[in-house]
TrEMBL record:
Domain of life: Bacteria
Pathway where it operates: Quinol/quinone metabolism; menaquinone biosynthesis; Quinol/quinone metabolism; 1,4-dihydroxy-2-naphthoate biosynthesis; 1,4-dihydroxy-2-naphthoate from chorismate: step 3/7
GO MF annotation terms: 2-succinyl-6-hydroxy-2,4-cyclohexadiene-1-carboxylate synthase activity
Keyword Lyase: yes
Keywords on record: Lyase, Menaquinone biosynthesis
E.C. number: 4.2.99.20
Subunit structure: Monomer.
PANTHER family: 2-SUCCINYL-5-ENOLPYRUVYL-6-HYDROXY-3-CYCLOHEXENE-1-CARBOXYLATE SYNTHASE, PROTEIN PHYLLO, CHLOROPLASTIC
The name this protein goes by in its record: Putative 2-succinyl-6-hydroxy-2,4-cyclohexadiene-1-carboxylate synthase
Transport as UniProt keyword: no
Pfam families assigned to the protein according to its UniProt record, in alphabetical order: Abhydrolase_1
Catalytic activity: 5-enolpyruvoyl-6-hydroxy-2-succinyl-cyclohex-3-ene-1-carboxylate = (1R,6R)-6-hydroxy-2-succinyl-cyclohexa-2,4-diene-1-carboxylate + pyruvate
Job of this protein: Catalyzes a proton abstraction reaction that results in 2,5-elimination of pyruvate from 2-succinyl-5-enolpyruvyl-6-hydroxy-3-cyclohexene-1-carboxylate (SEPHCHC) and the formation of 2-succinyl-6-hydroxy-2,4-cyclohexadiene-1-carboxylate (SHCHC).
Amino acid sequence: MKPTLVFLHGLLGTQADWQKLSENLPHFHCVALDLPWHGSAKNYPVQDFDETCAYVAKQIQSAVENQPYFLIGYSLGGRIALYYALYSQQEKYNLQGLIIEGGNLGLINETEKEVRWKNDVFWAQRFSHEKAESVLNDWYQQAVFAHLTEGQRKALIEKRQTNCGDNIAQMLLATSLAKQPDLRPYVKNSPYPIYYFCGERDHKFKQMALDNQLNLSVIPNAGHNAHQENPMVFAAQLNALLRDKFIAF
């Protein structure tokens, strides 16, 4: 039986975001989930991290049962993966380890959390009330997406419009970084191996990984969304990591 990888996408994404990467991982059984308020789960309501993780646990149990699996999360999906594995009271089943791509470990002080909450409320109001194209055009101008070319930015705006609206506002508030505990001490004392993947142009999260002495793999020719920007190299590094450290093919 092939080893199983379970994927969690980022805000505005769907399970389809992992397709190119999965195509480059033939030795694995790849299971990509839609998060609440997204894709096929667009009408599944959650109000916080705990409800989100209860949903994730249920989906993992249904898809994986008791087979060993690695949980891979991008951005918001990475934050949810960390919370689920290290902080939530949910059953982890046969979890073997985490691969986090561009996921934030949390904010340290209350001032940072207040600023972030105001920012997330601002974006949530825009997602709820404005046309998707207008909001997304500004969303993808944020610093973390600064590396994108104009063509890449337009393609993302086009791709995300159908999944964009009040549902994204709801998820943004439910899983705001302001609501997330600082997971640094939990990462440091994790019972599971944790590996951090980051695009070479994603300076913010690459520095965060270095500052926290995470086990870092840097993906060349990629920014924040490395698994979509360079899926072949991402897959090769993931394949080598899991093959060398855990799995005998």
